[in-house]
């Protein structure tokens, strides 16, 4: 069963199109873990009327921590060798979180951080499931010990007491998981409280199903085949768009429980299939294979200079992952797993030492990354005569120099002060907040007051507007919210494959209108991503609905005598630009996208055509020309990911944007 679970995850991560629901392998792992751990604890309590927490945790440390710590240390060294300095800080936090088994809580925090959604995948993000299990291992024995002691004192049957107490916890967690999958599935995916029920199913099975040997063989065999069918069906037909772990997760988890209940032997067809040497081998190395496969997937591109795009790439990843897992299993896991006489405290010493080493390494990585990235950023993000950025277009100089700023390795840092990276305060509204956040530039008594509203595509214009405010003496106010379009329509928030109604955004938009009507600026500029969407609708329908919502707000402002303008959507490159340009032998042409692919007729273009009162600030000629949208213009890297502008390039467009604003005011 471990082989089935880890192979599903492995195929999903290497060839996601082949097995789009392979992530359910994690759910199968949870059921197996709950089954094994609960069975162990029940038998110990029935045998000795207690549970030795010291022995239990020592076994967990010996079994899990050495291999996990070596994996994390290998990731840290690999990051130093192959990742950019700008990526070290976030990774170092994840390394520490993974070592302390709280990676899932860090991902919960980041799942509502719009910046994190466009970041490259972390090589340790798969530690979220191990974190859930470790937290389960802390809580479950304490709960069972408390229930067992109480049952003995009251004279209750032990197994019935366990079944009742653990059943209540399991059902409560299931109900909460279903609720969160509808309300806020993005962070809910990683929560321990939404996952305990999956481990609980395995625990309940081992308590209630001890008399399975008395069940007719053909019935048990039927359960086994049903379990395999349930796991296979969910792995084949599910996709990452499903909200998990809601009721959809019942299919693979109950399938795993059915297969455990069957206990098929080698005399049966299913038993013979599952007990073949390859399946036993993969099941034996499954823990190490789970640990190593994802870092191999993530580091494949920076090491080889190519994505995992072909069958050959995938085979290389699988082979390397299995080789590392084999070494990890038989050199590390087996070495520490079995305690020798007099070594009862050794696991704790080893665990503390490995964790401390990793924490020190991660701290050093953070400090070194900060120092290196800041130094490189300060040296390579200043526009000059050799790097005019958008100014090259005004001079009809189309030269896209190989020497460009900022460097690809640090381009992700080039976001401007609104993100609070240079000691200034972050002034962007977060996803869960319904309150307004303000960025102010220029004098309060300026003759011209401008407000820009929208999502991160409004934020990436703020460096240019800040520069304009300083030169022209205008007052610029940014009112922005992560992933939120300024529209009366109810949009959706998407994160890590899960979608939900973005209620906070709709409430925020109404508050923005009220604030604007109260303060009456001279001009309101609207900018947002062309990929905003409406729940349950096609892309064209979404854009039409969002445009109508923008039109409603624009008309309300126009009736109050406030001019409204939109900035045409900025291009969307097909690849992560800094990642592409950082590869060996990278070229601007290879990393750039055609105008036809990069530009889209989305909501802001649609509303500008429908509503005559809306002015249009068209900056697209400063991104795309001669049919292409190059990633470097005038010696400046245009993008810090696929679609957000570097602050350096945005500032180079300040004169042109100022001209566009003046035209909108006429």
Automatic annotation (TrEMBL):
Q: What is the lineage of its organism?
A: Bacteria, Pseudomonadati, Pseudomonadota, Gammaproteobacteria, Lysobacterales
**SUPFAM superfamilies with a match to the protein in the record:** SGNH hydrolase (SSF52266)
Keywords from UniProt, A to Z, are: Acyltransferase, Cell membrane, Membrane, Transferase, Transmembrane, Transmembrane helix
Keyword Aminoacyl-tRNA synthetase, does the record have it? Answer: no
Annotated protein name in UniProt = Acyltransferase family protein
Q: How does it sit in the bilayer?
A: Multi-pass membrane protein
Cellular location of this protein? Cell membrane
Q: Under which main EC class is this enzyme filed?
A: transferase
């Amino acid at each position: 069963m471990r082989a089935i679970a880890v192979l599903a995850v492995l195929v999903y991560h290497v060839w996601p199109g082949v097995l789009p629901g392979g992530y359910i392998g994690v759910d199968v792992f949870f059921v197996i873990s709950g089954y094994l751990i609960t069975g162990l604890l029940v038998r110990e309590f029935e045998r000795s009327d207690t549970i030795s927490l010291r022995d239990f945790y020592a076994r967990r440390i010996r079994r899990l921590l050495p291999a996990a710590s070596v994996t994390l240390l290998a990731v840290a060294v690999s990051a130093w060798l192959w990742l950019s300095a700008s990526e070290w800080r976030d990774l170092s936090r994840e390394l520490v979180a993974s070592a302390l088994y709280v990676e899932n809580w860090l991902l919960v925090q980041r799942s509502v951080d719009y910046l994190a959604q466009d970041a490259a995948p972390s090589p340790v993000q798969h530690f979220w499931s191990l974190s859930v299990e470790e937290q389960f291992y802390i809580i479950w024995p304490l709960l069972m010990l408390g229930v067992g002691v109480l049952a003995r004192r009251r004279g209750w049957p032990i197994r019935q007491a366990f079944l009742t107490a653990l059943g209540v916890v399991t059902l409560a967690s299931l109900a909460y998981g279903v609720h969160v999958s509808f309300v806020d599935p993005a962070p809910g995916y990683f929560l321990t409280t939404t996952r305990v029920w999956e481990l609980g199913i395995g625990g309940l099975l081992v308590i209630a199903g001890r008399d399975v040997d008395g069940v007719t063989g053909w019935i048990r065999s039927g359960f086994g085949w049903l379990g395999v069918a349930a796991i296979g069906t969910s792995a084949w037909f599910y996709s990452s768009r499903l909200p998990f772990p809601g009721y959809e997760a019942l299919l693979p988890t109950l399938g795993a429980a059915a297969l455990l209940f069957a206990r098929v032997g080698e005399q049966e067809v299913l038993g013979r299939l599952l007990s073949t040497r390859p399946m036993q081998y993969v099941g034996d190395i499954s823990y190490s294979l789970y640990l190593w496969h994802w870092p191999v997937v993530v580091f494949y591109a920076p090491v080889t200079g190519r994505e995992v795009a072909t069958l050959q790439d995938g085979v290389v990843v699988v082979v390397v992952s299995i080789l590392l897992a084999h070494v990890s299993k038989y050199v590390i896991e087996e070495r520490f797993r079995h305690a020798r006489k007099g070594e009862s405290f050794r696991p704790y010493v080893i665990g503390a030492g490995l964790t401390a080493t990793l924490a020190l390494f991660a701290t050093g990585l953070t400090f070194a990354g900060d120092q290196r990235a800041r130094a490189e950023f300060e040296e390579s993000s200043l526009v000059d005569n050799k790097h005019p950025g958008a100014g090259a277009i005004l001079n009809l100089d189309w030269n896209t120099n190989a020497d460009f700023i900022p460097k690809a390795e640090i381009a992700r840092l080039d976001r401007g002060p609104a993100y609070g990276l240079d000691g200034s305060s972050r002034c962007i509204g977060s996803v869960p907040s319904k309150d307004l956040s303000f960025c102010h530039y220029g004098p309060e008594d300026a003759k011209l007051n401008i407000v820009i509203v929208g999502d991160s595509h409004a934020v990436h214009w703020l460096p240019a507007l800040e520069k304009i405010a300083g030169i022209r003496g205008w007052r610029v106010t940014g009112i922005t919210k992560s992933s939120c379009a300024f529209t009366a329509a109810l949009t959706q928030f998407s994160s890590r494959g899960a979608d939900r109604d973005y209620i906070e955004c709709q409430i925020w938009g109404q508050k923005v209108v009220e604030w604007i009507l109260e303060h009456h600026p001279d001009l309101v500029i609207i900018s947002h991503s062309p990929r905003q969407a409406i729940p349950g609708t096609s892309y064209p329908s979404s854009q039409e609905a969002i445009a109508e919502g923008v039109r409603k707000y624009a008309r309300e402002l126009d009736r109050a005598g406030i001019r409204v303008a939109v900035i045409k959507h900025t291009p969307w490159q097909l690849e992560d630009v800094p990642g592409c340009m950082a590869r060996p032998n990278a070229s601007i042409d290879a990393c750039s996208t055609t105008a036809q692919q990069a530009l889209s007729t989305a909501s802001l273009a649609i509303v500008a055509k429908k509503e005559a009162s809306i002015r249009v600030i068209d900056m697209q000629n400063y991104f795309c020309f001669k049919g292409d949208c190059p990633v470097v213009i005038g010696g400046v890297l245009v993008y810090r990911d696929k679609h957000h502008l570097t602050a350096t390039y945005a500032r180079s467009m300040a004169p042109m944007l100022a001209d566009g604003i003046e035209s909108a005011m006429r």
